[in-house]
Amino acid sequence: MRFETPLEYLESRTYEEISVGDTSSLMRTLRPEDVKLFALMSGDMNPALANAEFQRSGLFQDFIAHGMWTASLLSTTLGTQFPGPGTVLIESTLHFARPISIGDTVTVTITVRQKFDHNHHIILDCACHNQDQLLVVSGSAEVLAPVEKIRAKRGAMPEITISDKYARLQALVQRAAGLEPIDMAVVHPCDRESLKGALLAAEAGLIRPILVGPEQKICSVAEENGFDLGQHRIVSVRHSHEAAAMAVTLVRSGDAEALMKGSLHTDELMAEVISRSAGLRTERRISHVFLMDVPTYPRPIMITDAAINIAPTLPEKVDIIQNAIDLAHVIGTPEPKVAILSAVETVSPKIQSTLDAAALCKMADRGQIKGGLLDGPLAFDNAVSMVAAKTKGINSAVAGRADILVVPDLESGNMIAKQLEYLANALSSGIVLGARVPIVLTSRADTAETRIASCVIAALIAHDARQRQTAV
After folding, report:
1. Which residues are 28's β-sheet partners?
2. Closest Cα partner for 323 from 285, 290, 292?
3. Is 410 inside a domain boundary?
4. Residue-wise DSSP of 93-139
């Protein structure tokens, strides 16, 4: 007889109810997060399982599960399904015939082989097969079966999100794999994180850094932290203001095709960038975009503008949006969904941001903003949550699916970005757009990882600019 327990209940089969030949089965599909979670819970960080480079040179040529993950499915079957609650595992013997890879579906089948009336022990044969009906694990288990019926409602399991910022950073770096490093002027890298970020980006093959700042100070930071400056070029200047001016000069002369802010204030760098006589202005309004990879959101999301334009006007918002759409195209989103944020999702003459949102959407309809799908005003919740959008009766192709969040002003945008970074463990990158070259602009408190992520975006933009120039 085959036993299946209703999903909403856990119900045991007593020793007396069980007969030789009775069987039960459980099916599970192996996901990447299962491997990571099992490694975290067990502490088994076997590189043959966890490191992709090791795997490619190892015996099994795919990402495989820990053998004991499969064994845990046997325990799950015994404890929750057959015999069920109250079962005590006494002994088990398992043979692992072949590996289980990501995406494999495993069916665990247990069959009663023998019963012992004197102690209520049962011996079961165990077999695990993959989706191709190939045996992956076989063996047997001896259990103490429950003597009294236990039936309980199955408790709800908590949702678990594995936030692996390092893995997300590596995935982002892979976007620039195969591209030639770009020459980047790093402005005043005179603290640990800004210098480390530049050197790690160089090590990852993203940039060739030109370190612009007081040479003695840069070398001192490197020595204090054990950094190897190697053959990296240093352009020595007296102070941070002079470093900003020199970095802009390097771009204008063609010696650099991107900038990175180091340990100086944003205003000090941007004053040189926007100088009308010797800066890096174009016909487009300069704006900033945070590109964030949030563990609880299904796609990368941009926030603009949270660093440059304090209270942008309607015409300035047009350029801010167009800059972000152009960046979305560069990173592989052909028609980004643009949510124009406000406190409410209805147009109100009392709230200027709702009026701007309505005007921007109409401007997009008339071709004044190109390449994206706009909707607004939208509150933050219905911009990123389908459930919130449906609850409020919003019928929109953007609501709940936003790729770009356009904030009303710098204050609100900066708060959203910092909250996602510090409370939601988002991987953040910051880039200034609308100038002649991309400018990596991060907070002085940001980590080296944030700077590396930003260098990836700068490299992609620079290479896109190269291709467009070649096409012309």
Report:
1. 106
2. 285
3. yes
4. EEEE-S--BTT-EEEEEEEEEEEETTTTEEEEEEEEE-TTS-EEEEE
Q: What burial class does residue 267 get, using C-beta atoms within 10 Å of its C-beta: 0-12 exposed, 13-18 middle, 19+ buried?
A: exposed
Q: Are strands 373-378 and 427-433 parallel, antiparallel or unpaired?
A: unpaired
Q: Centre a 10 Å sphere on the Cβ of residue 422 and count the other Cβ atoms it contains.
A: 11
Amino acid at 24: S
pLDDT digit string, tens, across residues 273-308: 999 888 999 999 999 999 999 988 888 999 999 999
Give the separation between CA 161 and CA 142, rounded to whole angstroms. Answer: 35
Exposure of 51 in the CB half-sphere (CA atoms within 13 A): 9
Dihedral over alpha carbons 430, 433, 436, 438 (to 10 degrees): 20
**Domain containing residue 325: CATH number:** 3.40.718.10
Location of structure tokens 């399991």: 157
Residue 112: pLDDT band (50, 70, 90) is: very high
Phi and psi at 128, nearest 5°, equal: -120, 125
Least confident of 50-59, 62-71, 251-260: 50-59
- Please check whether residue 248 lies inside any domain of the structure: yes
Q: How many whole angstroms separate alpha carbon 164 and alpha carbon 399?
A: 27
Q: How many domains does the chain have?
A: 2
Which two three-digit tokens encode residue 245?
């001016």
**What range defines the domain where residue 123 resides?**
9-153
Look at residue 123 and give its three-state secondary structure: strand
Residue 380: its H or E element:
helix 380-384
Phi, psi angle pair for 121, to nearest 5°: -85, 150
In this structure, is residue 235 part of a structural domain? Answer: yes
Q: If you ran DSSP here, which 8-state letter would residue 339 be given?
A: E
Q: What is the Cα–Cα distance from 101 to 226, expressed in whole angstroms?
A: 41
Q: For residue 231, what are its two tokens?
A: 């053959």
Q: In terms of pLDDT, which residue wins out, 201 or 468?
A: 201
378 phi/psi in degrees, rounded to 5: -130, 135
